[in-house]
Specification:
Length: 413
């Protein structure tokens, strides 16, 4: 069976908006603690799809990536990185304090395979398997004027970052982590943060990774899912407890894609089903019966081909290219023109031909099959070329990101 790889969107939220949302809706303890203790980051970053163990539509064999925080980054098919938005910490390698209303190519970078950006820094996975960073990195050894190599990593095939911790998947199927470790999210059995990447023990044949706000996920080539960090798949005295090292998630069918949110996890199975487990998205008390420690299938969805987990909302792409959304909708992230939250999936109007989705704390995005990028939710500092808040999908002014139809190496997405 042919396997395929897809790089998809990744998004981050601004720290001010995180604090505002925490005050308005009441976030889970790990998430609010993260905001207090990890102010160097603002939310989600690049999420990448795994190597698929079942064939899917060849049109989904896209090789694109987009990351957005206070700034936005996009990789075009030739490996060029485009940037726009805020540059307060040198995330766009421009003169500090400048910001770019419309996307422009960023000179001086290696040919990119994927990118990720947080509040104060950006990272890049080069086509040769090396990882580069720039901006105001908490470790203090990155530059605001030129990219610097992340030392000590073997050849890397995928990256992910969120809430101050970083993950890298090597070409050999090993997982390396570094960064914040308050909730055991580095998987080394401690809560000691570190700036040096180290391998995570107890994992093998990993094909995909996902960094959540306080936990981490890994998908192995046999379809099993492993988790560690502040929220795990175990319970003790009726409460969720941290898993200091990787533990296997029980009770979920073989999986082809994983996504980590704020204290909860989402998985796409080989049969096109969507399963969830963990603590319910914060601010949706009525959802607490819908998401539990034991994985459960999400009802009311058509056959799914892609998933995305924001801090408090979820997106699913169906096999007909439509997008479905549910969860907290304070900033219009469900794309239905309202701010009404909901506990069951509903179609996002006006979208078709979608091949990839991403979800952050306060925004959502997608790539359509024609290579166009669409964004909605709380949009700030020029991420759409203006200051408007969009509660319905709107096109981002980027070059078309659509892609070669070759067969990518099977490694991640």
């Amino acid at each position: 069976m042919k396997a395929r790889k897809t790089s998809i969107l990744g998004l981050t939220a601004g720290l001010v908006l995180l604090a505002l949302t925490a005050a308005l809706v009441g976030l889970s303890a790990p998430f609010t603690d993260w905001m207090r203790h990890h102010t160097q980051h603002a939310g989600c970053a690049l999420a990448q799809a795994p190597a698929q163990t079942e064939p899917r539509d060849p049109a989904l064999d896209v090789r694109t990536s987009l990351a957005a925080g206070e700034c936005g980054l996009a990789v075009t098919p030739d490996g060029t990185v485009w940037g726009w938005g805020d540059n307060s910490w040198g995330q766009l390698l421009m003169k500090r304090g400048d910001w770019c209303r419309n996307p422009r190519p960023i000179p001086g970078l290696p040919k990119a395979k994927a990118v990720s950006t947080c509040l104060t820094e950006s990272i890049l996975l080069a086509q040769d398997g090396s990882v580069w960073g720039w901006g105001d990195y908490p470790g203090g050894d990155w530059s605001r004027s030129q990219p610097r190599l992340v030392a000590g990593l073997p050849s890397v095939s995928a990256i992910d970052a969120r809430a101050g911790h970083y993950m890298a998947l090597t070409s050999e199927g090993a997982v390396w982590t570094w960064g914040g470790n308050r909730y055991y999210q580095l998987g080394d059995g401690t809560t000691v943060s570190r700036t040096v990447a180290q391998p995570v023990a107890g994992l093998c044949a990993v094909v995909s990774i996902s960094a959540g706000f306080s936990h981490s996920l890994a998908l192995c080539d046999d379809g099993s899912v492993w988790t560690w960090g502040g929220i795990s798949n175990t319970e003790e005295n009726g409460a969720f407890c941290p898993s200091a090292t990787p533990s296997k998630v029980q009770g979920v069918p073989p999986v082809v894609r994983i996504e980590a949110g704020s204290g909860y996890s989402v998985a796409l199975t080989r049969e096109g089903e969507v399963w969830m487990w963990g603590v319910s998205p914060s601010g949706l008390e009525s959802m607490r019966d819908e998401i539990t420690a034991a994985p459960r299938q999400v009802q009311g969805l058509p056959l799914a081909i892609e998933i995305a987990a924001g801090a408090q909302h979820c997106l699913v792409v169906s096999n007909d290219g439509s997008v479905w959304a549910w969860g907290l909708n304070t900033f219009g992230v469900l794309g239905d023109g309202t701010t009404e939250s909901r506990t069951t999936p509903r179609l996002v109007p006006g979208l078709f031909g979608v091949v990839a989705v991403a979800a952050s704390l306060d925004r959502s995005a997608c790539i359509r099959s024609d290579g166009s990028v669409w964004d909605w939710g709380q949009v700030v500092r020029g991420l759409l070329g203006d200051y408007r808040v969009c509660m319905r999908p709107r096109r981002v002014r980027l070059p078309l990101l659509m892609v070669r139809q070759d067969k990518p190496d099977v490694s991640s997405g």
